[in-house]
Write a structure and sequence with these properties.
alpha/beta, Rossmann fold, five-stranded parallel beta sheet, globular, binds NADP nicotinamide-adenine-dinucleotide phosphate
């Protein structure tokens, strides 16, 4: 089975549109503020995609474009302004920030209830303590949403994640634990990786190496979620050698058209979740 991202993203999009319409009836329009320091080409391209996606679901936007040389004091002031603005529900700060800015400190300044990209240590702690009142990082949440959409019961499943970063492997392990899965995290020093991945019911790959995983890493029962984003010969591909592996496993998510498609919609769903959290207090 092909675990395509589009139907999952479509469902999340429909839910966001519905929630945004309901909020508008009460006079509240969901709004995201994008805070960009400098004008890096990839930031601008990402910003355009987020703005287009927001327009399509009825989320208002504000772009706060700041000078590359902005100092901590001025940046802090901008974030505090957005924290206090009752009409702004989600704040997205593009990373990496320029080296002269202290990202750790910035992550502590953003209001956790507006932190739609899980920068704040408060939200990270909530992921690790299993508190669903936080906002999880988008990519790990997208992995879980894909598996749930395709009706995989995660309880008791053996899951192997090949990645131990804070944007993917570690928080994803916590989300799987919250679903009562049994989780193994692998990394570059793991021994007999093929044996570990073959023992798992579900394998999540995120090594960032194009076509790294061939058929010898899986069994015919494997469910594979490929998070990798790589360019090989100018073409986008995942960590799994899709053309060879896809016929030899039970299910696999494609790249492109898999996790990435869902991740961008999860980000927008966090604006709605942020609204709910802000209404609670
Ligand atoms: P990262 O910090 O570089 O992490 C890579 C992980 O892979 C590390 O844990 C590393 O182990 C492990 N690894 C590297 N080579 C390995 C090997 N030969 N065997 C076993 N493990 C190995 O990267 P990241 O930021 O987490 O991102 C990972 C990938 O996901 C990238 O391709 C990125 O583009 C993609 N990504 C996709 C999305 C999406 O929405 N689809 C979002 C974010 C990231 P060590 O810890 O030992 O170094």
């Amino acid at each position: 089975m092909l675990l395509k991202g589009k139907p999952v993203a479509d469902k999340i999009r429909a839910d966001i549109i519905h929630a945004a319409e309901e909020y508008k009836k009460t006079g509240d329009t969901p709004k995201i503020a994008i805070l960009r320091v400098g004008a890096r080409e990839d930031d601008i391209a990402y910003e355009e995609r987020v703005l287009k996606n927001c327009r399509a679901v009825g989320i208002e936007t504000e772009v706060v474009a700041l000078d590359l040389n902005i100092d901590m004091e001025s940046l802090t002031k901008e974030i505090k302004r957005l924290n206090e603005d009752v009409n702004t529900h989600g704040i997205l700060i593009f990373r990496p920030l320029p080296a002269h800015l202290d990202t750790e400190e910035i992550s502590r300044i953003i209001d956790p209830r507006k932190d739609i990209d899980c920068m704040s240590p408060v939200n990270i702690e909530k992921v690790f303590t299993g508190d669903s009142n936080g906002i999880a990082p988008c990519t790990p949440e997208a992995v879980i949403e894909i598996l749930k959409f395709y009706d995989y019961d995660l309880q008791g499943k053996n899951v192997t994640i090949v990645n131990r970063s804070m944007v993917l492997g570690k928080p994803l392990a916590m989300l799987f634990l919250a679903e009562n899965a049994t989780v193994t995290i692998c990394h570059s020093k793991t021994k007999e990786l093929k044996e570990v991945t073959k023992r798992a019911d579900i394998v999540v790959t995120g090594v960032g190496r194009g076509k790294f995983f061939g058929p010898d890493y899986f069994t015919e029962g494997s469910v594979v979620v490929d998070v990798g984003i790589n360019f090989e010969d100018g073409k986008l591909c995942g960590d799994v050698d899709f053309d060879i592996v896809s016929d030899q496993v039970s299910a696999i998510s494609p790249v492109p058209g898999g996790v990435g498609t869902v991740t961008s919609m999860i980000l927008l769903s966090h604006v709605i979740k942020a609204m709910v959290l802000q209404k609670k207090q």
